[in-house]
């Protein structure tokens, strides 16, 4: 049966992480800790001397978590956007030292200069004719798919119900761009070739999020991906990749970026989720599509007067972070195995790392405890030991069951497997009423 996305069907929660570099963190969206206030006073309520609203409770927890993370000496990832303005400005100094662009050239105006240089670099990395810079991925993908809708003659876009536009963008596809999303599968994975071939409604574009973040940063095998793309082609549909985290997918696929992106007609990539830039997105594809996309970018209000800080930070990320992503992925697998072993050694009755092994440098951890208890234990561990094992929030998935996301980046490379298992023991002690109580 087909599953057509409607306004009433959108999930309003934002997932477990409270500092993820994602559009889900926009201030007009709900915070990730969506559980109702507990019957007993939380630590923040005890400090305030009274009951807090759910919004205030989430705000205070987020502030505590971020403060604890900033103060921690050991973390698995230290995203730049949690830093101070001074620290963020230092990224521009680093970019200057890397000699990424001729800084004696005139600054950019409405997308020329350094912005064009970034577009050319992006197109080259992805093996596409051209690329356009956008201020957000939300805008880039709406523009891409409405351009394809004009070419295919149908506004229907097949995508996963857990895809970012369906969960985190307030129905922008339909409400803003007149697109009609349909769901090929509801399984927590990318659709199969058979599901695409047998889907009972016509569609003009198939959008694949690689990796599918809300299913656990999961990827298909290379053979599965090529089969799905072929199945879409058999239906005369174009293929668009939501590649917000495509940069780190090369290890799993065992293929270079250019070959992966070559399967799709168009590709969106983020310059800040993995590359730690100030923001921004790239849309790559045929020259004619990109030319039209730039016209729509103007109509959507995305042709910004000057964007040199963001463009320069993106170039710095491509230079500094992109080559290191395979190392992060490899070490994430070490961390994931150590987490599983650590929870078993600590006597936790059930724990799961998903996927195992991780497909990228990001994965989920599931534990059989209340989300509020897990969140409090994680914050206390960071505050008391200066080690932040779990820096993201926890999302309840049923009574006594919750999950969080774990990211492994440069800071995490310092952790050995023994470091991870020791940190797990400290975390479990706080979770079960041991240390610090």
From TrEMBL:
<feature type="domain" description="Aromatic amino acid beta-eliminating lyase/threonine aldolase">
    <location>
        <begin position="111"/>
        <end position="341"/>
    </location>
</feature>
<feature type="region of interest" description="Disordered">
    <location>
        <begin position="1"/>
        <end position="72"/>
    </location>
</feature>
<dbReference type="GO" id="GO:0006545">
    <property type="term" value="P:glycine biosynthetic process"/>
</dbReference>
<dbReference type="InterPro" id="IPR015422">
    <property type="entry name" value="PyrdxlP-dep_Trfase_small"/>
</dbReference>
<dbReference type="InterPro" id="IPR001597">
    <property type="entry name" value="ArAA_b-elim_lyase/Thr_aldolase"/>
</dbReference>
<protein>
    <submittedName>
        <fullName>Putative Threonine aldolase</fullName>
    </submittedName>
</protein>
<dbReference type="GO" id="GO:0008732">
    <property type="term" value="F:L-allo-threonine aldolase activity"/>
</dbReference>
<dbReference type="InterPro" id="IPR015424">
    <property type="entry name" value="PyrdxlP-dep_Trfase"/>
</dbReference>
<feature type="compositionally biased region" description="Basic residues">
    <location>
        <begin position="58"/>
        <end position="72"/>
    </location>
</feature>
<keyword id="KW-0663">Pyridoxal phosphate</keyword>
<dbReference type="GO" id="GO:0005829">
    <property type="term" value="C:cytosol"/>
</dbReference>
<dbReference type="Pfam" id="PF01212">
    <property type="entry name" value="Beta_elim_lyase"/>
</dbReference>
<comment type="similarity">
    <text>Belongs to the threonine aldolase family.</text>
</comment>
<dbReference type="GO" id="GO:0006567">
    <property type="term" value="P:L-threonine catabolic process"/>
</dbReference>
<feature type="compositionally biased region" description="Gly residues">
    <location>
        <begin position="1"/>
        <end position="12"/>
    </location>
</feature>
<dbReference type="InterPro" id="IPR015421">
    <property type="entry name" value="PyrdxlP-dep_Trfase_major"/>
</dbReference>
